[in-house]
Specification:
This protein is α+β, with helices and mostly antiparallel strands and 270 residues long. The chain is built from five helices and eleven strands; from the N terminus they run βααββββαβββαβββα. 23% of the residues lie in helices and 31% in strands.
């Protein structure tokens, strides 16, 4: 998808009152054949993405978007799961125009941009199929990045996708409210956008199939992402690929792909 050049910034009367919210769900799928393996898998993801680790990830997000953390509330749950909420404020140094241009954000090894005050939240949800013979376990992460002011939280999109083992990603971006220019004209969006895909890095687009469902007149954008290819060895928990027959490998691969497709399309596949 071609990327548009940014249009000139609107000259505003006072503060930019637009609220820009990025919400997405990330799903990680694994295969664990026995109840013991399921327990090990859920302990593993619960430890990997506990409240402390999630706080580190969200702290990096605030660096990427140039925010100050005002308050952190975090909680680990029993038996599994965690939540973190951050109240954030505008950076004390005003951003220049190069930092407020809507464009694909950084991957995990870079920091750019600034924003005005709002919040960042994350919640995790481990889940396993109740039938032992299915062997599928799913780990879901829900993330919200909401900003008010000059820039979009889309700057954090690529970093967050690459911070988790993302097999399926569903993304919603919405601009709400309005701001006024120096002539008093209301503006309900302050940047051009025709797809969330415009803000995905090239390597992300190479890894995922992406489809859009957008409501342009309401400034609502929705994209669904499905990993194109995967190595079976990366999805096995409690057993190695070398211990499986060709028939077992084929069956497990089919189960994993079906789980991904069901989540991606939002319907059960018989």
């Amino acid at each position: 998808m071609s990327r548009r050049k940014p249009s000139p910034k609107i000259k505003l009367h006072g503060f930019n009152n637009l609220t820009k919210t990025l919400s997405f769900n990330i799903y990680d799928i694994s295969y664990a054949a026995t109840p013991a393996h399921v327990g090990e898998y859920r302990e593993y993801v619960d430890e990997l993405y506990n409240a402390e680790r999630l706080t580190e990830i969200l702290s990096k997000v605030t660096d990427i978007i140039g925010a100050n953390i005002l308050h952190i509330a975090r909680q680990d749950y029993e038996p599994e799961g965690a939540s973190v909420t951050m109240l954030i404020a505008e950076h004390p140094v005003p951003p220049d125009e190069s930092q407020t241009t809507e464009e694909p954000g950084p991957l995990p090894d870079a920091i750019v941009a600034h924003l005005d005050k709002s919040h960042v939240t994350v919640h995790t949800y481990p889940e396993s199929h109740p039938s032992n013979d299915i062997g599928i376990s799913t780990f879901r992460v829900d993330i919200d990045v909401s900003t008010c002011g000059l820039i979009s939280p889309l700057k954090a999109l690529n970093y967050l996708i690459h911070s988790f083992d993302s097999d399926i990603v569903t993304v919603d971006y919405r601009v709400r409210g309005f701001t006024r220019d120096v002539d008093g004209i209301k503006h309900y969006i302050d940047h051009e956008i025709n797809s969330i895909q415009n803000y995905l890095s090239d390597d992300t687009l190479e890894q995922y199939e992406v489809i859009d469902v957008n409501v342009y007149q309401e400034n609502i954008f929705h994209s669904k992402m499905l990993l194109k290819n995967f190595a079976l060895s990366d999805y096995l928990f409690g057993a190695g690929e070398k211990d499986l027959s060709e028939a077992e490998k084929e069956e497990i691969t089919h189960k994993l792909r079906r789980e991904m497709l069901e989540i991606f399309y939002g319907r059960n596949i018989e």
